[in-house]
Task: inverse folding
């Protein structure tokens, strides 16, 4: 990271690149120091939308995946529909969400849900379908019910794969929030990027982008830390 910043800074100095086109790291720091309260306030709006949307998508994705994995008929009926919905470019849906849900945080939260939902569903289904046959035979020989098999065997075995989906989804969650904020630039760091672009304040736009990157990294490692705390045994069986 330090090397990347150093090369970036050196390139802007050697080639005399104007801040309008590519600001140097000190220009970005100056932009942040110029309006710290404004940037942090908009960053908090983006974080709130991202966390709420990610939480809804995670809960809904886990529930839907359990239903799909439990019934082959339901999976064949609904999975193609989810694949088709996921293939729709989310940028094209963003303006419609404003029409349907109005201005404010709701369309942005819904966009986060749309982007995060499918990775959680796919990863959870993969985890629930990967239970070793010998474990299934063991619980069947012990007369375990369907519910006991799910809770005590299939779900714990699927947890590492579920967390893979959650880590992918939380990285995409910030992207979803920013896409919606750019289409509806009234709050959030996406709005900062749009408004700074119209005023040709490129360092301020880069300051917002750096904050978005930091938010993504922090959220990703929070989910990764939760995985380490909740699944200390996962590395032992996979490594």
Result:
């Amino acid at each position: 990271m330090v090397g990347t910043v150093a090369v970036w800074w050196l390139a802007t100095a050697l080639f005399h690149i104007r801040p309008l086109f590519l600001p140097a790291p000190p220009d970005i720091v100056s932009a942040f120091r110029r309006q710290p309260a404004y940037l942090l306030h908009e960053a908090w709006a983006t974080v709130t939308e991202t966390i709420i949307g990610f939480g809804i998508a995670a809960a809904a994705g886990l529930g839907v995946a359990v239903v799909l994995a439990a019934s082959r008929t339901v999976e064949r009926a609904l999975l193609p529909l989810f694949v088709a919905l996921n293939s729709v470019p989310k940028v094209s849906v963003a303006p419609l969400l404003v029409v349907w849900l109005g201005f404010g945080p709701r369309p942005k939260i819904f966009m986060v849900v749309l982007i995060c939902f499918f990775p959680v569903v796919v990863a959870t289904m993969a985890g629930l379908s990967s239970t070793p046959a010998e474990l299934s035979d063991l619980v069947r020989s012990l007369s375990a019910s369907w519910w006991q098999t799910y809770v005590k065997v299939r779900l714990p075995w699927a947890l590492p794969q579920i967390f893979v989906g959650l880590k992918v989804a939380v990285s995409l969650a910030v992207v979803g929030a920013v896409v919606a904020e750019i289409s509806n630039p009234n709050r959030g760091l996406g709005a900062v990027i749009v408004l700074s672009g119209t005023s040709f304040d490129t360092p301020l736009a880069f300051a917002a982008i750096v904050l978005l990157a930091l938010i993504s990294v922090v959220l990703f490692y929070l989910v990764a830390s939760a995985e380490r705390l909740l699944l200390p045994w996962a590395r032992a069986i996979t490594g």
